[in-house]
Each structure stands twice: as structure tokens, then as C-alpha cells.
Amino acid sequence: VVTELIHGKTTTYYPFGPITDTGPYDFIIHGDSDFIDMPFTRLNGELQITKLDGSTVTDTELNAFVNLLPQSLFRQVECKVGDHLVSDLSTPTYAYKAFIETHLGFTEEQKKIMFEALEYYCKDSIDCEEIYVLNNEQAKSFKKKHEQLKANNGKLPFSMILHVDFLNCHKPLIPHVDLKLKFIRNEDSFSLLGSTKSVKIKINDLSLDVRKITFDPQLADAIESKLSSTPAVYPITSGKIKSHIITTGRQTERVSQIFRGKLPRQIIIGFVDSGGYDGNVSKNPFKFGNFGINSFQGYLNGEPITPLPFKPKFSTNSYTREYRWFLDNLGCYESKNPLDVTYEEFKANSCFFVYDMSPELCNLYHQHGNQNGIFDFDVGFETALTKNITAIIYGSFHEVVMIDKSRNVTIVE
């Protein structure tokens, strides 16, 4: 029987200032005598997709929206504990962080239950094909999304988890610590699909739900007393994204020193059309295509990570070694949880090269000492690229946030 926890409640906060379509949106959760159960923080709201003049979408406006629509609205989410920034702002890629962590972090059943209401579609043909013609049989997903824009005047309510690393720590945040969140909008075109942009996204409502817990006073006093000698420690897995453009005409590329110094525990590398990355409405930003890759090798301190480079032949459906490596390095074998990316989808829209840097491929389950060095990779293509593509490189790092009795915040990397 748990007797230390007396009471729990959810408190709703609203952004400071008016809710505009372009943002930003600032929330301040002032610390009080309660602890905060951070993983249950949720952003709720309603968005509305309308014609440019504000009226309801019709079949004339051939637009739909990307997968995981509400998360795609934001290019950056800043998180401060007190006045100390604890989120990575090196690249404005929150939408990619949210997509990769959702797409590669949950089973098919979990996605259907937890994320379909957030416009996540597990088997989404529009993420494989760029088709914007309503009478085309292959465009079923596009048509489904387009129909949603015509229904209910294009209003789409949402309630979403936040891909903010500190908030996903399962240790309750101690009392009297302020949390500050700032949500910075993406351009509408990043979240929309179509040959041209003929609709816009309106933000009608936003609020933040925060779960608070009242501890037994004796336990709360004991925790506060211990802070005099030992700070509160919050271990987090910090996901950071880097990007690299590979230009038209290239057939091979060395991406040097993408990580230097402290190395990630896990590295995930995928490639998207640079047009989608830059917000071209006719390109899907979350379609991680294979682009005819026929060679891939990662290097640690100049030494190849695998004895032989990967040599997929996507044109002949010969890429079993690459797919197996993808599954193993995402922990599918150890966890026995099936990843919701099939062999065919790996080729079509989920082509990732993954490196679990732990000795036993534990997929971040165990803590290991920090590893320092340099990570590079080579990639080759069957034919020279006919368009720019962008490499999205996701690295997972172990970090610790510490808060002392005076509520001073320190990050130990």
C-alpha cells in the first residue's frame, strides 16, 4: 500500500498573451508545495484548416496534412527549469524529433491506441507516394485526410505528449521549481501536403495539463532536508538532431565529425527530400526514402563499425542485412516488441541506418560510461542525385539535471 502519496490532481494552464496563428506560445508553471509528475504533461488544443479566406475547404483545394499533424506544428519547444534552459536548441527540428521517437519507439498496437487521434496513421500510403489527385486510387490516405478538412469546418482537436526530454523523466519534480515552456511554430507549409498551398492552419485553442502530487508532509520534509547535502538528481535521455545537405549530382558523400567529443548512446540516420525539410508543400518532410542508396558505413574514430559496409540493392528488393541491422539496433530482439516498420516500408518510407553504441545492443536499457570520440559516415548512391537531400541524424545522450536546495539548476553531460 502506497501511503506516501496523499493526493493527485491535474491543473490546466493557459498561454500568456493572445493565441495567434503564428505564436509563439508561452506557458509558466509556477512551483508550489506539490511535486510534478512530469511525463503526464499534455498539450491540448484545437486547430482548424480552412481556405486562405477562412471559409471551409472544398474539393477545389487539393490539400491534406502530414503524419502526426499536431506535433508537426512546432519547430522548437524550449524548456526552462527555473531560468535554466534544459532543452537542445541547436537545430529547429522538434517536429522531426517527435516523428522519429513516435515512429520508431512504439508498436503498431500502441500507435493505433495512443496516436491515431493525433493524426498518426500506421500504414499511411501518402507517406510513400506524393499523389495529390482525389480520383487516383493510390491516394486513399490523401483523400481520407482531405475529407477531414471538409468535415466540421476543418476543426481538429488534439491532446499530445511532449517530446521534451526533461519532462519525460519519471522522477517527480521537487516543489517550488518553476517550469517554463515556449512553443515556436513551423510554417504552415511544413505541415501541409499538396501541389500548391491553398489552405491555412488556424490555432483556435491551446492549454497545458500538468499532473501534481501531494506527498505526505513527513516525506516531503525529509526530501527537502536531504537537499541541504545532496541535490535532486534527474537522469534524462536527451535526443538531439543534426542535419546535413547532400547536393544534386553527388553519388558519394563523406559526412565527417557529425559527432565529436561525447558520443551518443544511439545514432539514427535517415534521409529526406530537402524540399520537404525546408517546407515545400509538395514534398513530404517525413518520407525517409532510400534514394537509391547502395553503400553505407559508419566510422568510430576512423575505424568502420561493421566489418563490411552495407550494400543494399533496393531496386531488386535485396536489403535483408540492412533491415535486420535496423531491427536489432532498435532493440526489437531483446525487447521482443515488434517494431511497426515492415520490410516493404523500410524501403519505401522508413529507411534508417541505426547504431546502438552499447556493447550488448541494449537499446538504452542499461547505463554505460560515456564514450568519447568521433563519428563519421559514408553514403553512396546507385546513380548521382537528381535533387538535394537532407540527412537527419538523431543522437541519444545520457545527461543529468541536478537541482539543489536553493533551486539552482546544473546540467551534467
Automatic annotation (TrEMBL):
It comes from the Eukaryota. One of its GO terms (cellular component) is cytosol. GO terms for molecular function: ribonucleoside-diphosphate reductase activity, thioredoxin disulfide as acceptor. GO terms for biological process: deoxyribonucleotide biosynthetic process. This is Uncharacterized protein. It comes from Daphnia pulex. The lineage of its organism: Eukaryota, Metazoa, Ecdysozoa, Arthropoda, Crustacea.
